[in-house]
Amino acid sequence: MTNILYTRLLLWKKKWLSMLIWLVLPIVGTYFIITITDSLQEDSKVPIGLVIEEQTDIALQLLNSIQESELVRVIKTTEEDALYRLEKHELDSVYIIHEGFEEAILNGKRNKLLSSYRTDLSFAYSPVKEMIVSLVQEDTGRSKAAHYIIQLNEHYQGENSWTWEDISEKSIEIQQDENLLYTAFHYNDSAESPTETSLISWNTWGLWAILSVISTLFLSDWIIREKALAVSTRFSFIKPSHFTYFAFTICIYMALFFLFDIASLTIFSIVLQEKVTIYFLVSLLSFRIMLTLLAFSLAHSFKSSGMYYGMAIVITLIAATISGVVLPVNGFMLKGPWTEIINPLDAFLNERMTVLWLLISMILVLLILTRKERSNA
């Protein structure tokens, strides 16, 4: 076994650069796709100017709510500077929170709380205005409910003395827990689920899985070279059997892949703040074993490297499509228990242990190796 490992290391030494590129492709590719997409989304947000004439809790709360929106990029400035930028078309629109905003909210007023400015080129003024108005209505509605509760408590001489701040905090807590009120804007789109507010959202491990598919397939081309007649004749002169040689070599590649998988876990958890659990580690391990064995089975069925590379690209595109990682196919692709049968990535993308395709890959590898063993006997 030591000789097999030593021989494999000598082969890797001759092509270490290409191997390294394919091994780090899932890590580097996933990171760059996500960071570039986030940067483009930030640049594509609608720039608006926001002027706050009073530094009260309710005014600052409204500012935070607007800043959390995925639609706009808020530039907090003065009224003079905001209007100057609006004239230069550096801002799409300008909104001013006037002095006395908190007092008006506490008194339940709904009219003339804000002022807004726009130009003829303000393409997103209407949706941004509606979003801000809806946030203000939440505050006024919460304030009206608080005053009503306080009046009821005073009228019926309740034992608990509720303040406006207590009622407001409780209503916000209920709103977040029960999702009673939700404000989201989707430009030129109608979203069914309120949980996704980002215009473009990548699944980190989904992208990594797709890139790992093509990386593993391309690195498994060694099997085609090992099957060449000039190379395969050496099996008659070496001590390990055909089955032992290939099984041990597959384990070497599997260990190498898993080493870089651990690097992916570490980098994504630190840089992209991805959570890693024991269940996910088990899911990742089963996925890696399945992918390595399937790549071996596929490569073993080809005699030409060119044909194999073409099929590897086709399989990767199909996997990316049916998995919904790159293309949003959830709208027209039915969901059901049978999706795991046609999609080897389904279990991993749902953080489950890959069972069905793992068994299929093991059976295929055993059939290939034992059949070859019998043919050489």
UniProtKB/TrEMBL annotation:
The keyword Glycoprotein does not apply. InterPro entries: ABC2_TM (IPR013525). It is found in: Membrane. The keyword Membrane applies. It is a multi-pass membrane protein. The chain crosses the membrane at residues 16-34, 205-224, 245-272, 278-296, 308-333, 353-370. It comes from the Bacteria. Pfam families: ABC2_membrane_3 (PF12698). Residues 16-331 form the ABC-2 type transporter transmembrane domain. Keywords: Membrane, Transmembrane, Transmembrane helix. This is ABC transporter permease. It comes from Ornithinibacillus xuwenensis.
